[in-house]
Every structure is written in C-alpha cells, then in structure tokens.
Design goal:
globular, two-stranded antiparallel ribbon, about 160 residues, mainly alpha, 4 strands
C-alpha cells in the first residue's frame, strides 16, 4: 500500500461520510496503476492537435495515433470496470458501494466519458473532413451536459 499522502486528493469523497476502507484504497491504487498517465494523454487532444499531427507526420501516422488513443481509452474503460468490482462492499446484508466509493466512481466515470466523447467528436469531424468552421456548424457541437435552468446544452 502507498503512503497516506498519495490519497490526499481523495479527501473530498470522504466529506461528511465514512472514510475509505483499506480494501477500497487498495482498489483505488490498482485503478490508478492501471490508468497511470492515460488521462494525461488526452489533455491537449482536439482537432487542432490532429491537424498538427497530420502536417508533421502525415495521414497514415495520424490514423495510427488515433488508433493508439482509442486503445488508451479502452485501457481506461477496463480499469473503471475493474474498479466497479473492487470498490463494491459486500456484506451479509447487501452488496453496495460506500458513499465515498460511489463518489469516486462517479468522478472517474464522468472524466472518462467526457474524454471519450471529446475523442469521438474530434475523430468524427476529422474523418468526415469537416475541417472548416462552416462545415463544423452542420455537425452537432461537442455538448457534454444538459443545463435545465439555462435551457441549454453545454460543452
């Protein structure tokens, strides 16, 4: 097990609820080991980056890069799927997630889904050749959520 300092960023999940158990912390550690560096690979991933990649390396290499990014998303998905089992609290009464574990899983899942949606939107625009602002206007914008009070779809 790693030092407690490693888990300082998890404290907000434990706010006003029971702290993570040792088993939950071990499952989170396994998840983080499986996803080490993966989310960071998508920090600058957008249409501009794809165009830059094409100009530097050509279309065949860019297609290979996109396949590699898709494999990283699959790695992330499999890690979340594994964490779903690892963070499950099984007792004689029920099988459920602690409040802290559910909060952690929601946060990680939301991050994965936003990243995947951005990836799919970017790849779709590039693949279909919708590279100009006028053409992109005919393709749905990369919305990620619904804001009911503002009556809008948001990115």
């Amino acid at each position: 097990m790693t030092s407690p300092e490693t888990y300082d960023d998890l404290l907000h999940h434990e706010f006003e609820t029971a702290p993570f158990t040792a088993a939950e912390l071990n499952a989170i550690m396994r998840y983080r080991e499986a996803t080490a560096g993966v989310p960071d690979c998508f920090d600058c991933f957008d249409l501009e980056h794809v165009h830059w990649h094409v100009s530097e390396f050509g279309r065949p290499q860019t297609a290979a890069m996109l396949r590699s990014q898709a494999e990283l998303l699959n790695t992330w998905y499999l890690a979340i799927d594994s964490a779903l089992g690892g963070l499950l609290t099984c007792t004689a009464e029920a099988s459920r997630y602690s409040t802290a574990a559910a909060s952690f899983l929601r946060q990680e899942s939301d991050s994965y889904h936003r990243t995947r949606q951005n990836f799919e939107h970017t790849v779709t625009i590039w693949t279909l050749g919708l590279n100009t602002r006028a053409a992109q206007a005919t393709y749905p914008p990369p919305t990620r959520s619904l804001n009911l009070p503002m009556q809008s779809l948001e990115s």
